[in-house]
Amino acid sequence: MAALLARSPFPSGGSNTLLDFGKVGSFLMSVLSLCALLDSAFFVPATRWEDRLVASLARVGFAGCVCLISGLLFHVSQPEVSTARTLPVRLFLWAIAGFSLFFVLGWYVDVYYMPLFWRNLPH
After folding, report:
1. Is 4 contained in some domain?
2. Three-class secondary structure of residue 82 per DSSP
3. Which of 16, 28, 33, 96 has its CA 20 to 30 A from that of 10?
C-alpha cells in the first residue's frame, strides 16, 4: 500500500493531496464520533446511569473503529510512526480515559452525594 502511495500518478503530487484530504476528513469524523459518544454519555436527559452506560458502549466501539481507520491513514503517510502513536488513536485513548473518569465521578455523585441534597430541601 505504501509503495502505491509513494509514486504519484500526477506530476503535481495528486495522490498525496488526496491522502491529505482523506486524513483531514477521517480526523474530523473521529472528532465527530467522539462528540456523539460524549453526548450519549452525559447529555441525555431523564435517563439512568445504567442506561447511559449501555447506550455509550456501542458508541465507544464505533468511535474506536473510526479513530483506528483514521490512524491507519495517518500511518500510511508516515510509516515510521506506529499506528498507536498517531493523532486520532491518541485522541481516542485520551478521550476514553477522560470520559470514563467523568462518567464514574458523575455516577458516584449522583448515587452517594445527591441524596444528601434531596433530604435537606425545605418543604
Report:
1. no
2. coil
3. 28
